[in-house]
Design brief:
Structural class: mainly alpha
Number of helices: 9
Largest sheet: none
Shape: globular
Order of helices and strands: HHHHHHHHH
């Protein structure tokens, strides 16, 4: 029996999880109940099962995604990052999903339209700064 998963507006990370689920050839019901399937998905995307559950729960709580907002605020797009540095994007998503400052981050975005600085509390700050520096170096070498 083939069960179609509903089409939802997943962030790129969760579209990858959806792709993994579909590729396993399992029904949506077994996805929710079969620990082996969950373990396979987690391994395929280089996460522990608890990290996968934690990220899924956070994504459900935060439509629009704080990481996408953070990337946009500094002039980056997750789609471009997924093409140029998929492993880095996956790590950014994992770290953001486990962040203990998500309420502070969400409040920052709620208070301001133009956050262009990466706050020190952000656990992805150094990685994001490195990406920005790399882009700046690439742009200056093209001139």
């Amino acid at each position: 029996m083939h069960v179609r998963l509903p089409t939802l507006d997943f962030s790129p990370f969760f579209r990858e999880i959806e792709r993994q689920i579909k590729s396993l050839g399992r029904s949506a019901q077994s996805y929710h109940t079969d620990p082996q399937v969950i373990g396979e998905i987690a391994r395929d995307i280089n996460l522990s099962v608890s990290e996968l559950y934690s990220l899924a729960a956070k994504e459900a709580d935060q439509p629009g995604g704080l990481l996408d907002k953070r990337l946009t605020s500094i002039g980056l797009r997750s789609e471009e990052l997924a093409r140029s540095h998929p492993e880095v994007l996956r790590d950014l998503q994992r770290v953001c999903g486990r962040c203990t400052s998500s309420v502070t981050c969400a409040n920052d975005f709620a208070r301001s339209d133009g956050l262009s600085d990466i706050p020190k509390y952000c656990p992805n700050e150094q990685t994001l700064q490195a990406i920005l520096q790399e882009e700046s170096n690439a742009a200056s070498s093209c001139r």
